[in-house]
Amino acid sequence: MPAIIRQPKEKDLMHLTRYAIEFPQPSNLKNNEWMRERKFWAADRLLDDDDVKKLLIAESGGKMVGYIYGVIHEQKDGEIQEIYVDEFYRREGIGTCLYQALVDWMSEEGTEVVNLSAPVGSEKIEKLMTSLGFKPVGKVYQKYL
């Protein structure tokens, strides 16, 4: 196994925040707004103790190198909201390990289907998800007001 997949610890906040900021940014936010939002996002996810939400950390050589965050909705469908692996550690199977650990948890909770929405133009994530058996089922359109 290329990395250890584990529950988050307080010591992960710095790396989680940095990775959360590096996550692809929506075009409607300015950089300083995005950074502020993502700092709060990281802290909220690290401290979240909700039974239907899960943050998992990938660790290699004692260092956090990635994360995955998912939720289970009331209809018992799972959603992968974010997956991120440090650029230096990509193409080593870490994203696949993160995905499998999250899906194992979702399956244990009775989830029968898992969804993921990828930003337009994110070929790398689309390639990973296709390799894991995901199939495109539609498009999402969005308008900021």
From TrEMBL:
Gene3D superfamilies xrefs: 3.40.630.30
Superkingdom per UniProt: Bacteria
UniProt domain N-acetyltransferase: residue ranges: 3-145
Name assigned to this protein: GNAT family N-acetyltransferase
